[in-house]
């Protein structure tokens, strides 16, 4: 059977971002779980102004093809002022139909104790507006500035189990919705 295709969107382009290490960790875990996956970095798709889906992205790469083929999405995002990074919104607003009827899981990141819990809540209306199915099992990466050693290895092994729970939910919805979308065709 073809593997489910679940790209991972790294939602911040900040210089020195700790979320990058989280995204690489989630990527490795998602591959081990059995998903077809790749990292999508907002740095590669961000523009200075919003370019909506119906406007041509002149000379700019678009991530439309990646998301059109995807069976679901994982977003790895830090919390900035109780919200999401501006570049996430710019990149996310580039597409529309590519997201519809697909599951999405959010991994929140912060250097505090809550691991971006408020960010996840703020993202939900956006995901719902784009007809995505937002999952219950978010993973919150807290105190991220202390979470990885110098070699980039995660110090807290409990995240493996938390991600497994998120992947299980994602797997169920991705498979069920894929079947349902194919019936629509
Ligand atoms: C502009 C800005 C706003 C921030 N606001 C919050 C916040 O509201 N809550 C929080 O827990 N951390 C906040 N942080 C700190 C992040 O948790 C911290 O940068 C962390 O390392 C995760 O983000 P990173 O990928 O940018 O490193 C903020 C950081 C920046 C740069």
From TrEMBL:
Gene3D superfamilies: 3.40.50.360. It comes from the Bacteria. GO terms for cellular component: cytosol. Signal peptide: none annotated. It holds the Pfam family FMN_red. Residues 8-142 form the NADPH-dependent FMN reductase-like domain. Transmembrane segments: none annotated. One of its GO terms (molecular function) is FMN binding. InterPro entries: Flavoprotein-like_sf, FMN_Rdtase-like_dom, NAD(P)H-dep_reductase. This is NADPH-dependent FMN reductase-like domain-containing protein. It comes from Candidatus Buchananbacteria bacterium RIFCSPHIGHO2_01_FULL_44_11.
